[in-house]
Fold:
Amino acid sequence: MIMNPSAIKKIVMDGHSLTLESFVAVARFGAKVELADSAIEAMKKSRALADKIAAEGRVAYGITTGFGEFQKVAVPKEMSNQLSTNLILSHCTAAGDPYAPEISRGMMLLRANALCGGVSGVRPLLVEMLVEMLNKGVTPIIPEKGSLGSSGDLAPLAHMTLPMLGKGEAWYDGVRMSGAEAMAKAGIKTLDTLVSKEGLGMTNGTCAMTSVGALALYDTICAAQLGDVIASLSFEGLTAQRSAFDPRVHEVRGQKGQMLVAANMRKLLDGSEIIDKAQGDRVQDAYALRCVPQLHGACRDALEFVKEKVEIELNAVTDNPLMFLDDEAVISGGNFHGEPMALPFDFLGIAASELADSSERRTERMVNAALSNGLTPFLTTQAGVNSGFMIVQYAAASMVSENKVYAHPASVDSIPSSANQEDIVSMGTTAARKARMILKNTQDVLADELMTACQAIDIRRRVGTHGNGITPLHQAIYDHVREKVAFYEIDREIWPDIRACEEMIRSGELLEIVKKFIPDFE
Structure:
């Protein structure tokens, strides 16, 4: 079913209930966040245990010892607060352009939700501050490079924490300013210092990779749905054979994604005069048409796997050490390790890349007169003096090839850090960032196919061999495109048309049209 996170206006955060849809609602659409009473109580009890351990001087990683290789170094009780604060000051080493505000907001939400689990030993005050920053629009500026994905996203999360200490930079009302100024303008009191265990509580975790990857996942799910819709438009332009979507073909294989996409294609093409008249024109079509259920369906299965893993991680406690009230145990583990996200996010990038692969092949068939079943060369009306859609396909092919570079898995790499104490790392944040880069290219390739398919339908109608009728949904999408992108009669400056189609792909407006005609579309 088409998700609609923009309709969610408020969530109650308890550490256990975030979904992909509610995460996107807060990160991207500004839904308000409220803390559950149960989470506040759990954090109070956990903090009391941390205070007790610190007061007794027990050996506990990050409370009475240094970090990483410095876990061998005891820290006096009177220095434990400075230890936590120093962790933020020394770890804010990230580089590159800032993450988009929605990614930074997602990181804040995930860190707060993890701390709500009540096993991290931080004061409820920190989570309340994060929630207030989210609700009042203070967004830390976090450079996107510099995480190994274990011990969590240390550098990005340190940058996220700086404004809470009146340091770093943040956006407020869309303006970039110092963290202190942003907090003051929002009326949020900053902290003089963190206390024992809170430095680790704020920085150990997979929040950067999960925020980047979860948003990329949501957008890739939308792109996959649009992939079916746009492919069905191309079907009409190319007078393809719908027999390949017969449910019996897909049931005997049994792959869920394949059966879903085949059902989508049957719905999308039902009632098309052009397709009805094209049946029997040939025995079978090329793979980019005939195998849409197999190609897109495999991507759907991959996305379902990634979604399952992401929704676990949205509610995961990923810092270290963890504190358990029943026996007052402080256990050093490795929940900060990003491997459970690194592999899915590599898979996400590969799935998004495959959507672009099949889309570009359909665009090529529409512009290539040798493959288009009667369309004009490059969809022109005056060939020779006009190039038509020749370089639209060229640009799509470029992005598809670029995706092949990005699709190389990050998770197979590792490099030791912290004097080999942290000797095998996940590169999960790199995997998530790559998936996002691939997704952006894929959206643009789909935009190229959308624009090309509308041109192909116009040319098909002019040729007149199969009638003029397309499905009611396709007509609505076609009309929507034509409001901003006119028929390409003679060569004109084409990039504004491409940008307009790209915006349609990214905005969600096309899926809103689909929902009106096919409410149960998946």
Summary: The first helix runs from residue 20 to 27. The chain has 20 helices and nine strands. The two ends are 4 Å apart (CA to CA). The CA atoms of residues 16 and 358 lie 38 Å apart.
